[in-house]
Amino acid sequence: MENRESRATPVGGSNIRVLVENGEYWLNNKGDLAILNVTVRRIAERWPNAAIGVLTDRSSLLKAYEPNAEPIRYQRGGDWPRRRGWGGLAGRFGPEAAGPLLRGWEAAAAAPASVVRRARRVLLRGGEDDGTNGESDARTTNSERLLLSRDGGRLPNAIDGASLVLAIGGGYLTDIDRFQTERTLDLLEYATNHRIPTAMVGQGIGPIHDHGVLEHAARVLPRVDFIALREGLRGPELLHSLGVLPERVVVTGDDAVELGYSTRRRDLGTDIGVCLRVAEYSPVGDEMQKVLGRVIRDVAAESDAGLVPLIVSEHDSEDRRSTMPLLAGFPDVVPPLGRFASARSLSRRIGRCRIIVTGAYHVAVFALSQGIPVVGLSTSRYYDDKFEGLAAMFDAGLELVRLDGEDFDDRLRRAMRSTWLRAPELRAGLLGRAVNQIEASRAAFDRAAQLVKGDITTRSNSNPGPTWPPTSST
């Protein structure tokens, strides 16, 4: 591996600055929040005095979820914060208490701020308003994309003083999210050009077919110091085709497995958990949703099980709008968690279930990590890849049902019944595979951390194994 020398000179972590590419700047997805939580905790444990900068569009909410993190905002130049502001107070109360208040405050402040940004764009463009919110600009030149904000570009100034640029797990490096893919690649390209250590962990990369994105990825990813993937079916082959050396790549599983595993119960639950994702990248028609709901309610009734709505994405309330109607009219439905519930709260809620039926990837991750089998729902190649990669990491316990074809209701019914019956025998194997993935994930983080010049680990054991027996008995 290429030996890079960081410009930072950390001593015991006091001068270390880790810049974290989060991938989900609005903090609306509990799967991404779980990965962020695991990553921030690992960094803080390794370097207690390090500055942990997280790219975000919601500074105070970030502090509510992760008090040890510092918000880095693209739209404000992306500098390291100089004062605590409202975020420190939000961190004291936590997201469930602070979230609703912050949401109202941000909504009130957003309107005048957007007017100012639009007026500025009109002036800069000679009276023309491009109709964007200022985040994405197709007319931005390549040279501007690789400049810091203070130099007239769009990259965060914080990168210049970073000891490590760490792109944490997610499924955002794909054609479906081209803007975030390009933004992440720009960040990594600047870092590699300026000899700043770079690592990517827990990544779900692809599908990528767009020629422009492929060319950009082929220019950047082979120069990244280290890449850890959450699955081994598609990612390694794609990276190989882009020119990434195999010795720079490992497969670990999803970093959120650690959080899910930590919330496991001593015994299997008795309910059926449900989440349906309906989005442009996961289309599910109205009639299909009606059939899906009927089958889920029928199997729950014959199994004498309650139904548990599992809301992982709050983007435009997409999971609430598609999941809650499936359960309507059933006599035993657990109330959904609030919008600002933590990822840990969602994972604990999953723990009360015997099986899970989900069209959302991280609901499946949380379930399998606790030894709970899953019926995965898909209508797209994007979700086929996600669920098939996850199934391979756990070897058993996830049955994928495509929601197309005239007999999908029968296939779903059979899958739910079979999974319900096999749940007890699958549990031990799933928990064992979760432990293996946690150990691999921690080892990958340690490898990334060793890229930092002067890395001094303060813990006597930098990679303890997962706790056993289960930490939760309820």
TrEMBL record:
Signal peptide: none
The keyword Transferase is annotated on this UniProt entry: yes
Keywords (A to Z) from UniProt: Transferase
UniProt GO MF annotations: transferase activity
Keyword Transferase annotated: yes
Cited Pfam families: PS_pyruv_trans
Polysaccharide pyruvyl transferase domain mapped to chain residues: 29-380
Cross-referenced InterPro entries: Polysacch_pyruvyl_Trfase
PANTHER family cross-referenced by the UniProt entry: COLANIC ACID BIOSYNTHESIS PROTEIN WCAK
Name the record gives this protein: Polysaccharide pyruvyl transferase
Organism this protein belongs to: Rhodococcus opacus
